Amino acid sequence: MLIGLVGKPSVGKSTFFKAATLAEVEIAAYPFTTIKPNHGVGYVKVECIDKEFNVQCNPAHGFCINHWRFVPVDLMDVAGLVPGASEGKGLGNQFLDDLRQADVFIHLVDLSGMTDAEGKPLPEGSTYSPVEDVKFLENELNLWYYNILNKVWRGFARKAEMEKAKFSDAVVKQFSGLKVNEEQVKAVLRSANLPEKPTLWTNEQILKFASSLREISKPMIIAANKCDHENAKTNLAKLESAYPNKLIYACSTDSELALRQAAKAGLIDYVPGNDHFEIKKNLSSGQKAALEKMKKNVLDVYQGTGVQEILNLAVFDLLKYIAIFPAGANKLADSKGNILPDCFLLPPESTALDFAYHLHTDFGKNFIKAIDARSKMAWGKEHKLKHRDALEIVTR
Length: 396
Known about the structure:
The chain is flat. It has helices spanning about 15-20, 90-100, 130-155, 165-175, 180-190, 205-215, 230-240, 255-265, 285-300, 305-320, 350-360, 360-365, and strands at about 1-5, 40-45, 65, 70-75, 105-110, 220-225, 250, 270, 280, 320-325, 345, 365-370, 380, 390-395. Helix 1 (about 15-20) runs parallel beside helix 8 (about 255-265), helix 3 packs across helix 6 (about 205-215) and helix 5 crosses helix 6 (about 205-215). The protein has 12 helices and 14 strands. By secondary structure, the chain is α/β, with parallel strands linked by helices. The chain starts with a strand and ends with a strand. Strands 1, 2, 3, 4, 5, 6 and 7 form a 7-stranded mixed β-sheet that branches. A 5-stranded mixed β-sheet has the order 11-10-14-12-13.
C-alpha cells in the first residue's frame, strides 16, 4: 500500500512527510523544494490486542506505545502540483508519473490562505481560498485520467460495434500502470448512466467517466493544514460548505513535527494522535512557551494535531483496510520468544485463506483451518476477517 501526499507547492507536504516518518527532508517556503519524490515509512495507529491477554508485545516491524500499535505504511511526498500540470506545466508530467502507484491521496491545503495557486506568498492584505486549491487539483487529476482514457476511446471510435464489456477490458489494460482494476471500471460503468456504446459518448461523458474512475481508484482525504492560523476556522468552514461530501480533516503539521521531535529527544512523553503530552525534563522558558502554545491553539481546539488521524482515515476509512494479528491459539510468542511480533494490513473482504497466503504461499496451499486466538473457535477458509482479528493458521 502506498499513500501519496499531493497539493500545490509550499502547503506543508514535506513537513507532513517528515512528521509522519521523522525522515530528513528539505523543507522551505518556495515552490518545488521537492524535486524527486521522498519515499518513507509512516505508521497507522491500531489498538494493540496485547492488553487483552495481559502481555506486552514485541513488534518486529513498527512499534507499540502504551498498548497502541503503530503499523508501517509506505508514504510518498511528490513535487507540488500547479494549474496546467496535466498539460506539462511546472513539474506536472513528473508529478503525475510519480503518483501512478499510489493507492490513496492525502491532499494538503493551506488554511491560512496566504499563498497563491502556485504556492507563492501573497502580498500583504491579500487572501486566497483553499476551495480553489481543491478545485484545481481535482481538475488536474481528472484531466490526467481523461488524457489516458481518450487514447482508449479513440481506438474504439474506429470500431462502431464495440460495447461496454470489451471497452472495460481495454480500459483496465490502459490503466494497469495506475493500479486500476476490473471491478473499479465495472462499478463506474454501472453507476455513470452512460450510453451502452462508448463510441456514442460525448467529450463531457468521457470526462465524467474519467473523473469517476479517478475518484474510485485514487480516493482522497483533504488535510486542511495550518489549522492554528487566524484565518483557519473561516477557511475550514468554506471548505466544508463547498465540499460537504468530501472527507476533510484539520491538521497542524508543524505542531506534529515539533511534538515528535521533542518526544524523540526525550523531553516529553507523546503518543502520536493523542491530544496531550507529559513533560519529562526541565525545559527552557522558550520550550515551555512553544509547547503551551501548541496545546492551547491546536491540541485543545482540535483534540490532536490531525496528522495521525489523517493517516488512519486514509487507510481504514477510505481504503477500508483491516489490521490482523497472527496469534497462536495457545501461545502468543513466535519461535524466538517475541510476543505478538506482527500485525498486517489486509484489503477489505479478506478471508482466512487470504491471510494464510499473505503470511506465506505454503500456508495458503496447505491451509486446513484458522483458529481464533480469543475464542479458540475454528474458521474455514472462506471466513471473512474483521479489524483487529487475531488468529493462527493451521496447515497440513
